[in-house]
Write a structure and sequence with these properties.
With 237 residues, the protein is mainly alpha-helical. It has one domain. The chain has 9 helices and no strands. Helix 2 runs antiparallel to helix 3 and helix 3 runs antiparallel to helix 7. It starts with 10 loop residues before the first helix and ends with a helix. It comes from Microbacterium flavum.
Length: 237
């Protein structure tokens, strides 16, 4: 089984790379937003139904734990499936190279000719890349895979997603634990709005997106979720 680690990097180096990667960072912010919105929406629904302070505490705690595990599990499954697909493609390319090396070089040269290189240059590039790492050259050309995922990547992705979700859910959870039930609905609403503004700013800066659009989308989803949940709770009270 082919299993190529990304450049032999240490876990700390992989963590720094993930933090500096805009897509990964944006994914963490999205998970944190999900934690904020889902937990706050659940609490507003219970509050609309007239739930006691004890029940709200239980609901907030359960939502944080269950939501974090669900988010982490879903991310782990998704990344694990992606890694399995990469490994399968690597095995197939390795078998094809073993069966017909020159034919694979020709295919690789055709790829580079399509990119605009002259036939002579394309052939030379294909031969040099194949000499260096034949499987990697084919994977990049045919699948756009620059680097095979490390074996630990799905686990790390799942853990980071779970932590990000729980960190977001901790905002309404903390208010539920510390604030009297008579005032916590207002404070949860205000804290969620402030948190969504902050995460929207971070996400927009990290991904170079329009701050106003990101903020509007986050607030519409967040406020809308809390409002609908609260009205649903009133309807069943």
């Amino acid at each position: 089984m082919i299993d190529i680690a990304p450049g032999g990097r240490t876990p700390w180096q992989r963590l720094r790379a993930a933090v500096s990667d805009a897509a990964s960072f944006r994914g963490w912010v999205v998970n944190a937003n999900d934690g904020i919105i889902a937990t706050a929406g659940l609490l507003q629904g219970f509050a609309g139904a007239g739930a006691s302070d004890r029940l709200l505490l239980f609901a907030a705690t359960a939502a944080t734990i269950a939501g974090g595990l669900s988010a982490g599990g879903a991310e782990w499954a998704e990344v694990a499936a992606e890694r399995e697909a990469e490994q399968r493609a690597a095995r197939e390319e390795s078998a094809e190279l073993a069966a017909d090396l020159q034919g694979e070089i020709e295919d690789l040269a055709a790829h580079w000719r399509a990119k605009g290189l002259t036939p002579e240059t394309a052939r030379k590039v294909a031969e040099e890349l194949t000499a260096h790492d034949p499987v990697a050259a084919q994977l990049e050309a045919e699948y756009g895979i620059d680097e095979l995922m490390a074996a630990a990547a799905p686990v790390w992705s799942g853990i980071s997603s779970a932590l990000a979700y729980m960190l977001g859910a901790f905002v309404p959870l903390l208010i539920t634990w510390l604030v009297p039930v008579q005032t916590e609905n207002t404070l949860i609403f205000a804290a969620v709005v402030v948190s969504l503004i902050l995460t929207s700013f971070i996400a927009a800066r990290a991904a170079h997106l329009d701050m106003r659009r990101v903020l509007v989308r986050s607030l519409v989803v967040g406020i809308g979720t809390m409002l609908v949940s609260y009205l649903a709770g009133l309807a069943f009270f």
